[in-house]
Amino acid sequence: MTETATTPPGVTPTEVPTFRHFIAGEWTDSTSGTTFESHNPADERDIIGRFQQGTAADVAMAVSAAWAARPMWQRTPAPKRGEIMFAFAYLMAEHKERLARAMTREMGKVLSEARGDVQEGIDIAYLMAGEGRRMSGETVPSELPDKWAMSIRQPIGIAGIITPWNFPMAIPCWKIMPALVTGNVVIFKPASDTPHCATLLVELMAEAGFPPGVVNLITGGGAEVGDAIVDNPDIGVISFTGSSTTGRSISVKAGQRLKRLSLELGGKNGVVVLKDADLDLAADGILWSAFGTTGQRCTACSRVIVDRVVAEPLLERLETRARKLRLGSGLDETTDVGPLINADAVDKVASYIDIGNGEGELVTGGGRATTGDLTHGHFFEPTIFAGVGPMDRIGQEEIFGPVLSVIPVDGYNEAMLALNQTRYGLSSSIYTQDVNTAFRAMRDFETGIVYVNAGTTGAETHLPFGGWKETGNGHREAGHVALDTYTEWKSIYVDFSGRLQRAQIDNQ
Fold first, then answer.
1. In which element (H, E) is residue 425 found?
2. 3-state secondary structure 346-400
3. Which of the residues 44, 106, 173, 298 is marked catalytic?
4. Interval 60-86: pLDDT, tens
C-alpha cells in the first residue's frame, strides 16, 4: 500500500510508490516484509519511493529462477540474444529523457551528465548486441595433418552483478550486457542509494523481451543481499564496482569458492600540467574532471601535479572559475555542481577538509553549502588546496567528493614519480605541447587509462575500462574484452584422419 509522502512547504503532496523485486519475470515483495526509502539528495524531503529490503531467501529464489532459465537462454542463438539487446537499446534511447530525469532526481548529478550516463548504457547495449553476431574465437592450423583446431567462448552460468550509485545506469549496462549476450543469466543488486534507476532499467529489459528468469533484480543492503550473492555456490561469476574495502572482502569470499571475480575499485587520479601546457585548456579539463559529478567518479581528478614554473597562473585560473560554479538541484539546467549522494558522504568530505588544513593551503571552498534551498540537500563547496605534498593524505587517499589538491613539482620526471606514487592506477592525464613528452607519459604512467591534453574522465564504451594496482584485479569492463569476464574458453580438436595421431606433446 502506498502512503502519502512528507512534502516540502508549498508542494502538492504525492503518493509514494512502492517498488518490488523482479524474479522469474514477476514483480514480487521481499520475504522480509520490509522496505526502505530512496530520497532525492538535493532535497531529502522528496521521497522517490519505497523499495524491498532484500534477504538471502530472496537471493535464493532469484538463483532458482535463473538456474531454471539458464539452459533455454544458453541454447538461444547468440544473434537472437543480440536482437533482444538491440530492442533494449532502442527502448533506452526512446526513454532517454525520462531515464535521465529520474536519475538526476535519485542520484543528484546534473541533467546533462545524467543524459550522458543513459547514453553510455545505450552505447554499450548496441556494442554488445553486435557481439551476438561476432563473439569470435580462433581457428588455427593444427600441428598434425587432417586435424582441425579452434577455440570458442561459452557462458559461465549465473552472473552476480553488484553496482554502485554514481553511474546507476551506465555501469549496470557495462556489466549486464556482456553477461547476457554471452549466454549468462543475471542476478542484479543495485546500490541502495539508487534502486529506482535499477528498477527502470529492468522494466525496459522485460519490455525488450528478455525471457523470465534471465534478468532478476534484488534490492537491499550489501550485508543481506550482496553477501548472499557472493556466497551462493550456484553463482559462478561476480562483477563488483565500489570501494576498495568492500572489494577486498568480496575477493576473500569469492576466492574461497574459486569464483570468477571482476573488481573495479578506487582511484586517485592525477592530471600532470607541464610548463609548456596550454593553461586555459588544462583548467577546463581539470575543473570538469574534479567537480563534474561533484567529484563522485572513480575517474575524477583529485590531484593536479603541476610544474612549479606555471603553478601560480594555473591556480589563479582554477580558483577564479571554481568560485563561480553554481550549486543546486541537477534538474535546474543552470546548475554546475549537484549534491553529494548522502549525509555520510558529506561527513567524509568534511573530515578530509580538516586533514587538508593541516597539510596544504585552503584556496577556496572547504565547507558545507547550506544557504537557501541547499539546506535541504547534501551539498559541499568545490574545494581547492594548494601546496600539497605528493605523499600527504589528501594527495593519496580517495575522498570521492569535490576536493582538489594542487601538488607543485620540478619537471616531467618529478611529475611522473608523483603521479605513480599511489596505490591506485585508474586514470591519468598530461597537458603538454611536446609530442615526445606525451609519448613518454603514455609509456610511463601506471594507469589503465591515459589522456593527453584532456581531463581524466570520459571513457568510451568500445575500449577497455579499468585500472592497475589496487584499482581492480586485472579484469576490464567495456570494450570487447569485457566478454572475458563472463565466458570460459573451450579448445576443440577434430581429427578426420581416421587413425590415431599423437600430438607433439606425446610423440617426441
1. strand 424-425
2. HHHHHHHHHHHHCCCEEEECCCECCCHHHHHCCCECCEEEECCCCCCHHHCCCCC
3. 298
4. 999 999 999 999 999 999 999 999 999
The catalytic residue among 264, 381, 398, 470 is: 264
Tens digit of each residue's pLDDT (9 = 90 or more) over 280-309? 999 999 999 999 999 999 999 999 999 999
Is 430 strand, coil or helix?
A: strand
Please tell me the predicted confidence (pLDDT) of residue 6: 43
Sign of CA dihedral 173, 178, 183, 184: negative
End-to-end CA distance of the chain: 75
- Max CA-CA distance within the chain? 87
pLDDT > 80? residue 4? no
Whether 264 sits among the annotated catalytic residues: the reply is yes
In 21-132 the beta strands, taken as DSSP E runs, fall at 21-23, 26-28, 35-40, 43-52
E-assigned strand segments in 101-223: 138-141, 147-155, 158-162, 185-189, 215-217
Percent of the chain with pLDDT over 70: 97
Sign of CA dihedral 203, 119, 84, 478: negative
Q: In the Cβ-directed half-sphere of 152, how many Cα atoms lie within 13 Å?
A: 7
Give the CA dihedral 315, 316, 319, 322, nearest 10 degrees. -100
Structural contact between residues 347 and 396, judged by C-beta atoms closer than 8 angstroms: no
* Exposed / middle / buried, residue 499 (Cβ in 10 Å: 0-12, 13-18, 19+): exposed
Q: Which domains does the chain have, with CATH numbers?
A: 46-265+472-490 (3.40.605.10), 269-452 (3.40.309.10)
With a pLDDT cut of 90, the percent of the chain lying above it is 95
CA R_g for the chain: 24
Residue keyed to cell 576443440:
492
CA torsion angle 42 45 49 52 (round to 10): 100
Q: Does residue 59 contact residue 249 with C-beta atoms inside 8 Å? A: no
Reported confidence tier of residue 13, pLDDT bands at 50, 70, 90? low
Q: Which amino acid is at 190?
A: P
Residues β-bridged to residue 158: 185
pLDDT of residue 505: 83
Strand partners, 331: none
Q: In this structure, are residues 481 and 464 in contact, taking their beta carbons and an 8 Å threshold?
A: yes
DSSP 473-484: SS--BSSGGGGG
Q: What is the pTM of this model?
A: 0.95
Catalytic residue flag (residue 301): no
* Confidence label for 237 from pLDDT (cuts 50, 70 and 90): very high
